[in-house]
Amino acid sequence: MATPVEKWVEEQAGLAKPDQIYWCDGSEEEAHKLIEIGMKKEKIGDNPIFQELNQKVWPKSYLHRSHPTDVARTEQLTFVCHPQKDQAGPTNNWMAPAEAKEKLTKLTDGCMRGKTMYVLPYMMGHPDSPYAKSCVQVTDVSYVAVSMRIMTRMGKNVLDKIGNTDNFVKGLHSVGDFDPNRRLIMHFPQESLVWSIGSGYGGNALLGKKCFSLRIASCLGQREGWLAEHMVVMGIQDPQGKITYITASFPSACGKTNLAMLESALPGYKIWTLGDDIAWLNIGPDGRLYAINPESGFFGVAPGTSMKTNPNMVRTLKKSKFYPTLFTNVALDLDKNVPWWEGADGPVPKRVADWQGKPWTPGQEGKAAHPNSRFTVSLYNAPTLSKEFDNPQGVPISAILLGGRRTQLIPLVAESFDWAHGVFMGARTGSETTAAAAGKTGVLRRDPMSMLPFCGYNMGDYFGHWLDMGKRLKHPPKIYAVNWFRTDDQGKFIWPGFGDNIRVLKWILARANNDVGVKDTPVGLLPNPADLDLSGLSIPKEKMEKLFEIDRQGWQDELKEIDAFLGQFGDHLPAEIRQQRDTLAKRLG
Ligand code: GTP
Ligand code: SPV
Ligand code: MN
Question: Minimal CA–CA distance to 286: which of 387, 383, 371, 393?
Answer without folding.
Answer: 393
